[in-house]
Amino acid sequence: MTSVRVSSNASHLGQDIAIRQFQLLADEPTDLGGNDTAPTPFEFVLAGLGACKAITVKMYAARKGWELAHVSVDCTLEKVESSQVIQANLHLRGTLTVEQRQRLLEIADRCPVHKLLTAEVQIHTVLSPER
């Protein structure tokens, strides 16, 4: 099971995020009432998706012995009519054939975070006792 803890901090909308041994911050931009001191929750979702795609592609290429020198992923989120649309632009550098590049594009869409975001997900929010 994966878990994180998010707690409000002294900033107006700022949040402290604890993930294993890592400490992060989240906030909102000033036009949404935040102090713009950290990435937004949506930006963290996009970062998780991009990182997962890049890691998955690197692992696959390494397992195949392909010469992938560098991978980066640019992710955007845009509201289009009544839908939220995420676009992930995959950038690959290395000595790769057209077929290998196409296969890595397919593999990127098989990363666990992509699967999570495109699957039917249930979220159960419950009220915990005060601490």
TrEMBL record:
Pfam families (UniProt xref): OsmC
Residues in the signal sequence: none
PANTHER family: OSMC-LIKE PROTEIN (PTHR39624:SF2), PROTEIN INVOLVED IN RIMO-MEDIATED BETA-METHYLTHIOLATION OF RIBOSOMAL PROTEIN S12 YCAO (PTHR39624)
Protein name: Osmotically inducible protein OsmC
